[in-house]
Design goal:
This protein has about 280 residues and is mainly beta. About 0% of the residues lie in helices and about 45% in strands. It is built from no helices and 28 strands. A four-stranded mixed sheet has the order 8-15-14-11, with no helix packed on it. The radius of gyration is 39 Å and the shape is rod-shaped. The model has no long low-confidence stretch (mean pLDDT about 95).
Length: about 280
């Protein structure tokens, strides 16, 4: 269907209507003997020479094959197309641009680079059909890829997110991730966070969950009224105290109180501890 074949008649053709088709809805033929397939079926083509002699030939018009399957694929992923009928024994499947997508002899399309490509399928009758396949780019993940235990970091995925489970964690005992991409550290370690966009394409980012520092405010102390005391935190990189206390600097408490130190380590993770000073 849609293709042509050229017939030749012997001798000198009749000057009027040398070629006719018994069913022009199946096969049409022009005055030069060029047959065009119109629809699947058979038709009888008659040739008349200038002596009025005739010859006939049955023409079979084969239906075009069809291609079924998913016509979009992600870079690095594969989808399998199916062609109707029996495939040609040679080059049944061809890609118009192997730099965008390749296709195997069994119809497996593999995305190589973002873009569109024409896939041609040929059946055993030599009939062909084409299908456009879109290769979708992989999404990207941006944000901070480290988080402390009990803290959060927000990730952003490019493009439109999938409506079903756009974000997933490989290990919820280390870190969880919400449907909007907010990662919460659960325990120290590393975890793979996967983002899926609306095309079904995925990308993965390793997130490091840093342990909290083990901060100590020191031992409880008992002092005499009017005496000074020095409070110093340990186990972190920097320290801040409540009640206007400066880490490692002497001060005079006016009454018995509990003092809280907040320690921050090199990863920015924070923990607290308390000490009681009795006056």
């Amino acid at each position: 269907v849609g293709s042509t074949v050229d017939f030749d008649g012997s001798g000198t053709a009749a000057s009027s209507s040398p070629w006719t088709s018994s069913n022009t809805s199946v096969a049409a033929i022009d005055s030069d003997g060029l047959v065009t397939g119109v629809s699947a079926g058979t038709a009888t083509v008659t040739y008349t020479d200038n002596n009025g002699g005739t010859a006939t030939q049955t023409v079979t018009v084969n239906a075009l094959p069809t291609i079924s399957g998913t016509t979009s694929v992600c870079i690095g992923s594969s989808e399998t197309l199916s062609g109707s009928g029996t495939a040609a024994t040679s080059n049944a499947w061809v890609s118009s641009d192997n730099n965008i997508a390749t296709i195997s002899s069994t119809g497996e399309v593999t995305g190589v680079a973002a873009g569109s490509v024409t896939i041609t399928y040929t059946n055993s009758n030599g009939c062909q059909i084409t299908e456009t396949v879109t290769v979708n780019a992989l999404p990207t993940i941006t944000g901070t890829f480290a988080v402390c235990v009990d803290a959060t970091t927000a990730l952003t995925g490019s493009g439109t997110a999938s409506t079903t489970t756009p974000w997933a964690s490989s290990d919820n005992s280390i870190a969880t991730v919400s449907s909007s991409g907010v990662v919460t550290g659960v325990a120290s370690g590393s975890v793979n966070i996967t983002y899926t966009n609306s095309n079904g394409c995925q990308t993965t980012q390793v997130i490091t969950v840093n342990a909290l520092p083990t901060v100590s405010a020191g031992a409880d102390q008992t002092i005499c009224s009017g005496s000074s005391v020095i409070l110093s935190g340990s186990g972190a990189l920097s320290y801040s105290w409540d009640n206007s206390v400066v880490n490692g600097t002497a001060f005079v408490p006016t009454n018995t109180a509990t003092y809280t130190v907040t320690g921050t380590d090199a990863n920015g993770c924070v923990a607290t501890d308390q000490v009681v000073v009795t006056v």
